[in-house]
Amino acid sequence: MTTLSPEIQERAAKIKLLIMDVDGVLTDGRIFIRDNGEEIKSFHTLDGHGLKMLQQSGVQTAIITGRDAPSVGVRVKQIGIQHYYKGIHDKKAAYNELRLAAGVEEQECAFIGDDVVDLPVMVRCGLPVAVPEAHDFVLQHVAYVTRRPAGKGAVRELCDLIMQAQGNLQSALEEYIK
Q1: CA 80 to chain centre
Q2: CB of 154 within 8 A of CB of 47?
Q3: Is residue 159 a contact partner of residue 127, using CB atoms and an 8 Å limit?
Q4: What is the pLDDT averaged over residues 84-104?
Q5: Can you tell me the mean pLDDT for 120-125?
Q6: β-pairing, 83-85 with 60-64?
Q7: Distance of CA 157 to the CA centre of its chain
Q8: What pLDDT score does 2 carry?
Q9: Are 15 and 127 in contact (CB under 8 A)?
Q10: DSSP letter assigned to residue 80
Q11: Tens digits of per-residue pLDDT, 47-80?
């Protein structure tokens, strides 16, 4: 278990909605494009299971991404992400629409991103988080930087952090050893 600062503990305890970017967060940021134009992305199973556990704890999950890759839609269905905004150029507008749809206040939202296009949401939400490879300007505007890299468990780390702050991580993990 991670030792959380009092500020992060307080912020994470309020989270009811986790919002994620895709490229450079749920993936390592690389985009493989086949000769026919098809995009191929690589997702980490740790992130997927962490999102399922977080959902089971009562936290909603969402994606706001500027791209529209079919593989992301497949992953969204596999994991059961409740809110999916794709091909978005104005993430702030999508965020406002999403909050209304999810019925949450700004301080009840966490957002994990990596680039400046994520900042309009990050600077407004209750828990702005970046991956270690994020742009330097982004790193200046977040409350927490994951230890795990993008596409390699960073989202799982954040899911665990939120569940820990809300007091239900340990019991969720212990279900697997009963």
Answers
A1: 14
A2: yes
A3: no
A4: 97
A5: 98
A6: parallel
A7: 10
A8: 73
A9: yes
A10: T
A11: 999 999 999 999 999 999 999 999 999 999 999 9
Structure tokens at 63: 């994606």
Could you tell me the end-to-end alpha-carbon distance of the chain, in angstroms, rounded to an integer?
19
Q: At what angle do helices 154-165 and 45-56 cross, to 10 degrees?
A: 20
Largest CA distance in the chain: 50
Beta bridge partners of 127: 110
- Helices 6-13 and 154-165 cross at an angle (nearest 10°) of 90
Full-model pTM? 0.96
Long-range contacts formed by 112-116: CB under 8 A, 24+ apart: 112/18, 112/19, 112/20, 112/21, 112/25, 112/146, 112/154, 112/155, 112/158, 113/20, 113/21, 113/24, 113/25, 113/138, 114/21, 114/23, 114/24, 114/25, 114/29, 114/138, 114/150, 115/21, 115/24
The rounded distance, in Å, linking the Cα atoms of 106 and 43 is 28
